[in-house]
Write a structure and sequence with these properties.
The protein is an all-alpha fold. Helix content is 72%, strand content 0%. It is built from 2 helices and no strands. It has helices spanning 6-20, 25-42. It starts with 5 loop residues before the first helix and ends with a helix.
């Protein structure tokens, strides 16, 4: 199991990337959703 701080760090980095590069919004959201879906299917929860 991963450390409980990992999920907020991922969200913070994604938010900063979206603020700095707004054109990345679609990619950041898509990657986040894919990662969360895979972790849910594999039983890895943050």
């Amino acid at each position: 199991m991963l450390h409980p701080v990992v999920s907020p760090i991922i969200a913070l980095v994604a938010g900063i990337l979206i603020l700095v590069f707004p054109e990345l919004l679609n990619f950041v959201v898509a990657i986040y959703l894919i990662l969360m879906g895979l972790m849910g299917l594999l039983g890895i929860f943050f």
